Amino acid sequence: MKYTTRLYVGFSLIIMVIAVLVGFIVGIIHSQNQELNELYEDRYLKIQLLNHIRVGIKNVDNDLKDTIDHNNAPSKDMNVQSIREGLEEINDDLHTLDAIIKVKKAKDKLNILHGQIEEYEKLINEILTIVDGGNTEKAASVYETDIKRDNQIINTTESMISIQERIMEDTLKSTKVSNDFYVKFTVVSIIITLLIGFWVSRWVIRSITNRFQNIRDVMKSIQYGSENLPRLRDLSNDEIGEIAQAYNEMATALEAHERMERQYTEEVEEQNWLSMRLAELSMLSQEIFDINNLDEKYFQAVIPMVDACYGALYIIKNDRSRPYLLKVCSYTDDVFAKPSLIVELEEGMVGQCARDGRLRRIKSVQSLPNTFFSHMGESVPNEILIFPILLDGEVVGVLELATKREFPQLHEKLLIEAMNQLGVTIDRIMQQMQVRKLLEESQALNEELRMQSEEMQFQQEQLRKMNEQLETQYKHSEQKTKDLEVTKLELEERTKQLQLTSKYKTEFLANISHELRTPLNSLLILAQIFLENKENNLTEKQKEYANTIHAAGKDLLNLINDILDLAKIESGKIDIKRNEMEIGDLVSFITNQFEPLANRKNLEFIVEVASNIPGFVYTDTQKVYQILKNLLSNAIKFTVKGKVRVFVKRTMHLQGEYIAFVVADTGIGISKENQELIFEAFQQVDGTTSRQYGGTGLGLSISKELAGLLSGFITVESTEGKGSTFTFYLPVNFEAEVVHSYPNVELDTFDLQHQVVEEPRLGANIVQDHELTGKHVLIVDDDMRNVFSLTTVLEAIGMKVSFAENGLEGIQILENNRDIDIILMDIMMAEMDGYETMREIRKSEKLKHIPIIAVTAKAMSEDRNKCIEAGASDYMTKPVNLEQLILLMKVWLCQLDNESIGK
Ligand code: ADP
Asked: How far, in Å, from the CA of 516 to the mean position of ligand 1?
């Protein structure tokens, strides 16, 4: 219940009690008043009337006496009148009394009095009658005798007065008693009312005071600036409850205000701290003019500011092909060191930060493996921060910091701001350093210029002198020009002679190679058959000899081929036939051909192609293959352990775009002075007879020439003992040129030679071939050794062999033997050469379907065309590679079979 209500109720109650009391008292006073009035009006009136009667009686007596005494006097009528009036008055009084007296005793007395007065009246009337008769004496005597009656009336009156007086006294007495009681009652009631009022007030005041004291205590306990103010719990539904509620709300508001004020103060303090540190660092950075001073002037100030246990500062350098990070200062365990460490942009968190410019935070570092922070010295940090140092959004450096605790946000803020500042500083320092360097350079240049201008003055003087001399010389030179013209003509003549000589040389080489190859062919085939050792009657020693013969023959053959190739190139007889060279084919060729060789030497063999390489290139595929084969066989030959790597990439070089074929090995390498020599003919690093590696010393010369023909070139980089990298640059050419294509199977002399070298025991496999078994072959050749060796091999695989010494004989045999399936035709024959014979055969209806494989020692491309024109189905060079020959025969015989099946 609210206090207002309570107070209203309390005080209304008191007022009500007082009102009842007052009403009660007023009632009592009123009744007493009435009683007193009655007393006064009733008793007093009665007494008065009685006294009036008594006085009236006396007056009547006196008048009567007068009348009696003074009978003849004029006043007699007046007296009688007065007596009559007096009696009337007495009777009136009696009547009044009769009306107001109620008490029986008093009524009885009044009746007595009434009777007495009636008698008295009669007496008076008698007397007066007597008097009127003139008998005065008699009247006097009657009066004298009956006067006593007069006394009786007085007595009765008086007794009645005394009765009334007694009643009055009694009434007064009783009034006084009740009056006393009412006074006492009133006093007691007032006291009780006052007590109740007092108690109610006390109860109300007490409870208000207690609660207010409670509020005061809580308010007193408020501490200035506290964010946790005490709350009032007295939240009853009354005015004090409302005050408490209001107080609580005020406390909440105060707390919020206090909190805001504290936060604001903290922010201001932090901002001050930040501004001061930044200003300090800014001042420091102003004093730095050299990147090497960053350490003592700046770095040593930052470390203690953020309480770091490790720190390193890197800046990005661009003085190499790729940008990298240079560590310019570092700090570990109270030691400031200035190590120059290079970190690549891919390396670790620092490198990553430099690349993407994002801050990195590594927490709880202790949980990471030890190696992670080994570079941080003995201190084991708890948190690592890596900041990019930015300038206009670009990373110019990286700051790495570690702490044993945790970096508070404020320190992080400071560092971020400081790093922005530092970016500008580094840029400024770099620019200043650059300017200083330029200034120094320009000073040096100035000095040089000055010296040069002096020198030029001197030279001018000399020039002037020389001019004079020149004028004299000019006269002589005219004469010399004439002489030179003569010399030029002579030289032209010589060139013609040289070209002729070169032609003779080439032709000589071609002829000699034919002459050399033919016997060599027999030698190789026979040596091969020897090695097969079919009869199993050779000793180990003999087999070894046969092997040596075979190997020596191969070397000789290689040399001859190389010489021939070089001669052809030098005399310009090599044609370039451009076609689409598929890079994919090239890669699989390289892998298939050289991976087994490398594996045999336990070398790792890697072939990689860059993604931007086109699918094909227009070039002479054969030549490219030849060059790469040479580079790769060298790489494998001169590498004992490690790896050989081929990398095909696209690159810009001097005049344009090239495809670079990089062949790198980890072999013996080539010394600087030998690097130029090796491209010359017959040049080998180790040319002694005791040398470790075989070879002719012609491979690179041929490759270099071939590369030149393809508008490319070859470079070499090598370190002795570490390895060599040969790079063949082939120009990227997308224009399609005339593509020569041949309907027959193309053979590559180089390829075949290498295969024979690598597979000396190839003949052993030939025996197992039975696709050719039973087929009839005609060999037309005038060299019996050749015929002999071929016959031996072909019979060994189950073929039926016929032979003719020249073309004429060959045609005769063909006409007599209708079962001949295929012809092997030598070209250079004494009587009727290969060309003519083939033309004859093609003319004959019966024979023209027989496939002819022309076999010649001439490897020139025009020889090949000549053969095809004359009617050859296919073409092979001597010495004959057996596997290739068998393959060719199979191709042509199967083709034939299929055709006949078709028919
Ligand atoms: P060869 O037939 O002797 O290998 P080359 O002309 O191909 O003839 O090479 C000439 C010489 O260059 C070699 O004898 C060898 O001394 C050196 N050479 C070539 N390639 C390499 C290589 N990859 N590593 C070391 N030396 C090499």
From this structure: 26
For ligand 1, whether the C-beta of 712 sits within 6 Å is no
**Does the beta carbon of 634 sit less than 6 angstroms from any atom of ligand 1?**
yes
The mean pLDDT value for 247-266 works out to: 92
- Work out whether strand 310-317 and strand 394-403 pair parallel, antiparallel, or are unpaired: antiparallel
The domains of the chain, with CATH numbers, are 3-196 (1.20.120.1730), 287-407 (3.30.450.40), 439-566 (no CATH), 575-740 (3.30.565.10), 776-902 (3.40.50.2300)
Closest ligand 1 atom to 687 CA: 14
- Return the HEC string of 213-228: HHHHHHHHCCCCCCCC
**Residue for token pair 């084969």:** 629
Q: Considering the entire predicted model, what is its pTM?
A: 0.36
Residue 764 — very low, low, confident or very high, per pLDDT cuts 50/70/90? very low
Which amino acid is residue 96, in one-letter code?
A: T
Among protein residues, the one whose CA lies closest to atom 14 of ligand 1: 684
- From 678, 682, 686, 722, mutation site for ligand 1 pocket: most ligand atoms within 8 A of C-beta: 678
CA of 621 relative to ligand 1 center, distance in Å: 23
Candidate from 244-248, 558-562, 674-678 with smallest mean pLDDT: 558-562
- Confidence band for 338, pLDDT divided at 50, 70 and 90: low
Cα–Cα distance for residue pair 766/761, rounded to 1 Å: 10
Rounded to 5°, the CA angle 763-765-771 comes to: 110
Rounded to an integer, what distance in angstroms lies between the CA atom of residue 262 and that of residue 227?
Answer: 9
Q: Which atom of ligand 1 is nearest to the CA of 665?
A: 23
